[in-house]
Design a protein that fits this description.
alpha/beta; Rossmann fold; 8-stranded mixed sheet; 6-stranded parallel sheet; 16 helices; 14 strands; globular
Amino acid sequence: MGRAATDAGHELTVVAPGAAHEVSARDGMRLIRYPAPRMPYDGTYRVPWRFDLMRRVVREQRPDIVQISSPFAPALAACTLGDAAVRVYLHHSDPIGCYVRPLLTRALPAVLAECIEYAAWGWHRKISAVCDATVVAAPWLATELSELGCERVSCVPFGITRRDLGSHCRNSELRERLLGPLAVDPRAVLVLIAGRLAVDKRQALLIEALQIVQRSRPVALVVLGDGPERVRLERVARGLGYATFLPFTHDRAEFAGVLASADLLLHGALAETYGFVIAEALASGTPVVVPAAGGAGAFARADYSETYTARDGVEAVARAVQRLLARPRTELSLAASNAARALPSSEQHFEHLFALYSQLKANKARRGCGSPATAGAHTVTLAHTWE
């Protein structure tokens, strides 16, 4: 976003918790860190507790747009600043779907669980009520938030950087290395699980399903990512023929090689708001097995994927994997690549996002609030929770 803002002539300031106080310029943005403790479960995230600093930065910057990238403390800070700037809530994560909904579903009857979940969305409804727009990445999510009572929901689809990806990145040497001792068996398959290793991603369920699949054919697993569940998942994966755990990588060539060299991507999260790794797998010509829920399910099409329902257990996930493996890999790969060509690019996403911001700014000026509208650059301040 920082590079896109610079290219478009905008100024971007990001306010986020970190290990220490730091003000730096990188990737076209001004980054302001403030010291904050790590979250108890997942230390990748830090507690955004500095209301005073967030509010002060926004007042000093006097931005045209305040983008709220967390429904927690940053939202509260931004929503109590008055009406000078355009406020936009970017709904890119779903804490209710990730944590509240699974607990309610397991503990309560369906009707009661739905009523309590609707009440839990009350805070999100308050955020959207005081914002000029709530931005989501997909039409299905816009419909869902609108039905939950959120106001002024706008869809700006996320994009991927396709030029780095493709089936041509399939690497036989890398694939052989990831298959390990199974590489000598022509029936062996390489399954990829990628993303943050956390309970809400349900990777343990996926690995247990692969243990069922390997009763009929050798299965090698590559897990790309990191998180609080890594040690547990490594323990569960000992029941497979071969497993490799790779950390997150910033090397796009390495990432593209892993995506394209797998026989399929297996995904478990039920509450994705988009699903970047699924989109990138398709762009790599890799078919997917995903739950029929959330952003993951929104990507599913019969010609390149298999699905299972949110309530399905290990056996159903295993059957979905087996169905996909029984289909011709070449046809699946071609269909996946063709579907990915219709996805927006990262550049298109930010072009549309900045166009929306300019329109919101002009609308606010016409209503007699804030600074006069201009067709030129504007300043954007974001409030984040991640480190």
